[in-house]
Amino acid sequence: VQLVESGGGLVQAGGSLRLSCAASGGTFSNYAMGWFRQAPGKEREFVGGISWNGVIYYADSVKGRFTISRDNAKNTAYLQMNSLKPEDTAVYYCASRVMVVVIKPKDYDYWGQGTQVTVSA
Predict the structure, then answer these.
(1) pLDDT tens digit sequence for 65-78
(2) For residues 28-34, average pLDDT
(3) How far apart are CA 34 and CA 32, in angstroms?
(4) DSSP letter string over the chain?
């Protein structure tokens, strides 16, 4: 399975970005897709994820601002980020594992290369 993120960039506080994670190989509909982020000097943290059956989870820090979705026909997962804050600045990664979302990075089997999101004050 290969995952390729896109959609990162520089945005002002309060702005929006949509990240995409395109998957190839494997059976996308069987996978849970997780989103993580890592800021400089910090550990990689769970942002949210969507299970194979569409159940969605969010970290408290992004709940109400970020929306996760998937399109199985396009083998793509999305992270819509609204009301962005400077503290959202990080490299964002998508990851996949079979079936259900979990929050620990070590439990994911495949990772994208990451995309930088920078939110200016």
Answers:
(1) 999 999 999 999 99
(2) 97
(3) 7
(4) -EEEEE--EEEETT--EEEEEEEESS-GGGEEEEEEEE-TTS--EEEEEE-TTS-EEE-TTTTTTEEEEEETTTTEEEEEE-S--GGG-EEEEEEEEESS--S-GGG-SEE---EEEEEE-
Q: Cβ-count burial of 22 within 10 angstroms (0-12 exposed, 13-18 middle, 19+ buried)?
A: middle
Nearest C-alpha neighbor of 85 from the set 48, 117, 60, 41: 117
Distance CA 114, CA 98 (A): 20
Contacts with 13 (C-beta within 8 Å, 6 or more apart), sequence order: 84, 85, 86, 119, 120, 121
Residues comprising the chain, all counted: 121
